[in-house]
Amino acid sequence: MSENVFETILENRCSQPQQLIEVLQDVQETFGYISEEAMTAVSKELGVPVIEVYRVANYYKAFSLAPRGRHVITVCMGTACHVRGAPRMLDEVRGQLGIEPGQTTPDKMFTLERVNCLGACALGPVVVLDGKYHRNMTPNKLRKLVQSVQQAEKEVEADAA
Amino acid sequence: MPPKLNTLEDLKQFRESLTSREAKVTTTITICGGTGCQASGSVKVIESLKAELAANGLTDTVKVRVTGCHGFCEQGPIMVIDPANIFYCRVSPDDVPEIVSETIRKNQVIEHLLYTDPTSGEKITKEADIPFYRAQDRVLLSQNRRIDPCSIEDYIAIGGYSALVKVLGGMTAEQVIQEIKRSGLRGRGGGGYPTGQKWQQCREAAGDEKYVICNADEGDPGAYMDRSVLEGNPHAILEGMLIGSYAVGANQGYIYVRNEYPLAVSNARKAIEQAKLFGFLGDDILGRHFFDIEIMRGAGAFVCGESTALMASLEGKVGEPRPKDVHTVQEGLWNKPTCLNNVETWANVPLIINKGAAWFASKGTKGSKGTKIFALTGRVKNTGLVEVAMGTSLRTIIHSIGGGPNDGVAIKAVQTGGPSGGCLPAEKFDLPVDFETLAEAGSMVGSGGMVVMDERTCMVDVAKYFIAFLQDESCGKCVPCRLGLGRMLEILTDITEGRGKPEQLDLLEDLGETMTHTCLCALGKTAANPVLSTLRYFRQEYESHIQDKYCSAGVCRELIQYSIDPNNCTGCGACLKACPNKAITGESEKPHRINQDLCSRCGICKDVCKFEAISIC
Amino acid sequence: MQEYVNITIDGAKISAIRGTSVLDTAMEYGICIPHLCHYPGLSDIGACRLCIVEHIVNGKAKVTASCTLNVAEGMVIRTDTDRIKRLRRNIAELLVAQAPNSRAIQDVAVRCGVKQVRYPFHNDNCVLCGRCVRVCAEMWQAKALGFVGRGKDRHVDFPFGRKPDFCKSCNTCIDICPMTITPCPGPMKTGEEYLCLACEGQLIMADSLPGACVWCDLGKGFQCTRQVQAG
After folding, report:
1. Most CB contacts within 10 A, which of B169, B236, B577, C23?
2. pLDDT tens, residue by residue, B427-463
3. What confidence tens digit (pLDDT) does each residue in A47-70 have?
């Protein structure tokens, strides 16, 4: 199944080295991370030396080389958010989930990431959870938000069992 | 089948047909659908509004227009009802039924939805009366308010594409370049290079294959002007690039958009589709030109805002800058002549063609013409996007438009120009925003980020923040940037953690000067500015951190302690629950205590305490 | 058919071959400009910034790297102004504070006049000069090595961190690396690094013969191209 998805991403891009970043974006969006197999296949199809694919995958923040958690918490660390206390969001997650930016919880539920500016500066501190933007965040609100996700997962598990 | 719009008369007739199409509409409700208002929930408001109007049989007479960012994000979701020009802010889906039944049907204003001016305390009904907007010169931004970014018809209705028709209908490339030169337009991305000159150099460069690029990477944290313009008015950029491509002789263009702006990417893509449909892009543009635009996304690298790094990224490589002894107008993308300009620069081009170079040059100072959009954020009452004529003073922007300090805490400094810029103290607020003036003062206009700081901000911590940011984003190729930033951060960390030595201040300046002259790219060359400007204007803060191990703003965690005043503490336990390090102990209704060994001095406890029992010492 | 252009370096009128860099031209004429990432036969990337010079244009002096600046008719260059010497010394100081455990880096520091190191020493074993990457890509066309990561995480690595099967183990990357020769007094223990001034005497000689490069042991760790040419 994933073979087909992969082929779709590479379609019409054979021997086009300039499409490397766009291709890796698609791989990241589809699979949540970029695997070694993916990089090797992209190298062959696009005609880019494998070291270059590896370099590009490592260079840009949008790409992650390890699978991420089911829920991604992104904290904006831009200047306006920083001045309004964004570092406390990281403190809160460190205390509540025990992870630093770039890390994933052992149960693979949450990944914490920091981003350098989302462009929603008047609403800072901003936290994005699973693609949804949350404005004027405080550590308290973040704690409740994380708890609600944990609660929702428990309920899904209970239903399934 | 879209109409063929080849002449100004064609456009005029099309505009008239659009107006007559709306003859039955008596009321227009404008709702902001930009990223900021979406974060505040405008999508649900729009849904409920459409449903409520349908339920009331009002769909024919009441038009709902979803626009891009108005730039007043803190008040969002924003709704404006015309023709009465009633301005509602912080609208929630629950307010919708009342809005329809009272305001739409009965013309009654709903008090609690009106904007309250933070300085005077009065409620203001009309959008046009809001002091924040009135004090600005919203030449560009006002367009966002009037159009749905996903509708090319809206853009044409306000005069869009008439500049392109005018250019292709009767101007030569040289005439276009002269007009841009006469306007005095300078790059709005930070470099401030005269746009007309850049276009001329690109035109004169040898080669048949040329490119134009729109830099929408907007990496400066705290800046979101480009997001607003690209999201809310993508056609203005397309039109600008079309005119530019004709002037320099390029047939392919790229818009490089930051990965973190998904809505801007999607709106720009839609705009390109529509422009193609209407014959404004593609193989045959009004019979005089052919040009295509492709959108390419960034992948999370601040350094890709630098033009050579951006071009490397477009070529599918790592975004590392290269030396610019040969400029990109000669050898840029794929080593071909390339004209790269910022979003705001491109968006100004149709205005200049339509209203004339003299009009543009009538605003601003001798060296800096036209208007500029700033993202005013931080510790000020009114935050948002501010568009003013160049030459306006910082004081006007921060106090008159921004409303001055919030929470009654005195404003200490303003940071302009992002990580490449610097901090200017309150004594310098009479300086006009002008490229040369701010650069001489040790900062820069930059891309437009303007972060206001008050007495609760530690300037050493601000310098450390920017250096940490730059170190994180540095490409790492050249020694002075990679190692220099590392050592600067080492020293600043020493100072903020109480290990600073007096000679380190001179070392910071020496290192900063070295970086300014020897780094490979402009980002490296300006990387020392946050440190150099804070040393210039706030040296006493550095000195007190070093000599007295004292942080006057109470920010530097190693130099402060939090303590609970047993006289005020009610034992409610809120701080105990909130502490991420479980450093607070105490019994219910008895004064609590902080264990200093476990305390990380994050300050969360002080925020949650309702009895002002926790203080910094 | 080679074309020549006339340029001036430190007041000396020089006939330079069009298409060559200011650095190559200067070295050819015996004007020694310190450098690290430059290596004859490999492309120049302008990473170390040691080869900076002042390029005088319209009366203004622009500081730029000479390895990436190509000669042009009428160009005026200064390699030895006080400002250049100070800037070069600061860059060399950063390098030696980062990686003192290398003869080449200690040579560079002394050559650039570093007399004190104002930063705490680290003990890195790579200065990211990129010679290994370029020789693998350009001379052997193998591309088995590359710069991976950004900023302070930038390092040289194989794809996926493993030596690929198309690496022929030619060891040119090791031979060309400036870090492989130990400093004169021997390897430095972590925590006990220092600036070695053993070659200072050589420098005093070099200073007394302006514009000339001294055939000194200084070049050994440096892999100075003039030493290499001598065989």
Report:
1. B236
2. 999 999 999 999 999 999 999 999 999 998 999 999 9
3. 999 999 999 999 998 999 999 999
Is B26-132 assigned to CATH 3.40.980.10? no
Task: List the single residue in B471, B490, B514 with the smallest CB-CB distance to C151.
Answer: B471
CATH of domain B371-454: 3.10.20.600
* Domain range list for chain A: 3-59, 71-160
What ipTM does this complex have? 0.94
Kindly give, in sequence order, each residue whose CB lies less than 8 Å from that of residue C231, ignoring residues fewer than 6 positions away: none
User: What is d(CA C125, CA C109) in angstroms, rounded to the nearest whole number?
Assistant: 16
Which distant-in-sequence residues (6+ apart) come within 8 Å of B207 by Cβ? B336, B337
Whether residue C154 lies within 8 A of chain B, CB to CB, comes out as yes
Phi, psi of C24 (to 5 degrees): -60, -45
Task: Report pLDDT for A83.
Answer: 79
CB count in 10 Å sphere of residue B498: 15
B371-378/B449-454 β-pairing = parallel
Average pLDDT of the residues of chain B: 94
Take residue B507 and report the two structure tokens written for it: 């070392």
Question: Which of C145, C150, C154 is the best substitution to test chain A (most A C-beta atoms within 10 A)?
Answer: C150
**Domain boundaries for CATH 3.40.30.10 within chain B:** 26-132
Query: Model's pTM, two decimal places?
Result: 0.93
Of the candidates B42, B88, B91, the residue with the CA atom closest to the CA atom of residue B66: B42
* Closest to B337 in 3D by CA, of B224, B202, B240: B202
**Cα–Cα distance for residue pair B43/B37, rounded to 1 Å:** 8
Q: Tell me what percent of chain A is helix, strand and coil, each rounded to the nearest 5.
A: 55, 10, 35
Domain B459-547 sits in CATH at 1.20.1440.230
Contacts of B441 (CB under 8 A, 6+ apart): B422, B424, B428, B431
Q: Coil, strand or helix: which one is B146? A: helix
Model confidence pLDDT, tens digit, residues B23-44? 889 999 999 998 889 888 999 9
Mark yes or no for CB contact B604/A88 under 8 Å: yes
CA closest to C136 among chain A residues: A51
- Average pLDDT, stretch B102-124? 91
CATH annotation of B561-616: 3.30.70.20
List the single best residue of C138, C148, C152, C166 to mutate versus A (max A Cβ within 10 A).
C148
Across B278-282, B313-317, C43-47, C105-109, least confident range? C105-109
Give which of C154, C157, C160 to mutate to test A binding, by max A Cβ within 10 Å.
C160
Condensed to tens digits (0 to 9), the pLDDT of residues B244-291 reads 999 999 999 999 999 889 999 999 999 999 999 999 999 999 999 999
Percent of chain A with pLDDT over 70: 98
Q: What is the pLDDT of residue C226?
A: 63
Closest CA to B372 of B416, B414, B412, B413: B416
Residue B475 has pLDDT above 70, yes or no: yes
Helix (H, G, I), strand (E, B) or coil at C99: coil
- If DSSP codes are grouped into helix, strand and coil, which group holds residue B210? coil
Name which CATH class applies to A71-160. alpha beta
Euclidean distance between CA atoms B112 and C112, whole angstroms = 70
* Mean pLDDT of the residues in chain C: 89
Distance CA(B599)–CA(B261), nearest Å, equals 37
Alpha carbon of A160: minimum distance to chain B alpha carbons (Å): 30
Instruction: For domain B152-361, give the CATH superfamily.
Output: NADH-ubiquinone oxidoreductase 51kDa subunit (3.40.50.11540)
Taking only Cα atoms into account, the Rg of chain C, rounded to an integer number of angstroms, comes to 18
Q: What is the pLDDT of residues C80-102, one digit of tens each?
A: 999 999 999 999 999 999 999 99
- CATH 3.40.50.11540 residue spans of chain B: 152-361
